[in-house]
Amino acid sequence: MIDPVVGPDFVRAHSDRVVLADVRYYLDGRSGRAAYEGGHLPGAIFVDLDTDLAAHAEPAQGRHPLPSPEAFAERMADLGLSDDTIVIGYDDAGGVMAARLVWMLRATGHDAALLDGGLDAYREKLETATPRRARGSFEARPWPSERLADVEDATSAEFVVLDARQPERFRGETEPIDPRAGHIPGARSLPTRENVDAAGLFLPPAELRERFVAVGVTDGATVVSYCGSGVTACHNLLALERAGFAPGRLYPGSWSQYSATDRPAATGD
Question: Mind listing the domains of the chain with CATH numbers?
Fold first, then answer.
């Protein structure tokens, strides 16, 4: 398995197997596809978070439940990806959206990584043409149970539960999307957007490790990561690996599922 974060040099060195995947997605109503069509990295395909990386949402499942393994494999094959493809995902937000694709691929045993620096990592002219790729051969593989968490896991003292949302949402000061404000009782705040610096580059592994240790992660701990809907939480899981810890677990339903229940919500730090 390749490192969870790679730079442009890696892409160039493995150009015969690498496919760049543009996973731009915006919570403010802008279209990720329109952004892609306006200019993307050379040869990149567009991966739609809503249709390619999530099932049709039911309120009880949260906003972005994982698709079935069969549906995921079908979409990846349609996009021209195969089991031996190295997929390098990127966006224009430090990788917090593209992390969902990368985590899904890595969790099912495929080589995938985030492009460090995202859209700004390349100094080459952007393209507007959509590349045509032949259908790939992509096997449906079950989501590994040891990489997933449910609402019971996310409320268990057995695990270190990390909330990837911005601090003000964790504290319950604002909630622009989901039914209630606050966080899962016992969770610790680790904003995923702080895994990168002002230029959108990942912090060095040692600095990432310090961030995790500061919220109670140890080498023997099992981490459960959640966010609003199981997307940006994947960024913390990739950062966890980059920091040298064992892979954690994603709670796909995240706060969008939890906040729709009658379970208690915590506020404040």
Answer: 5-121 (3.40.250.10), 145-258 (3.40.250.10)
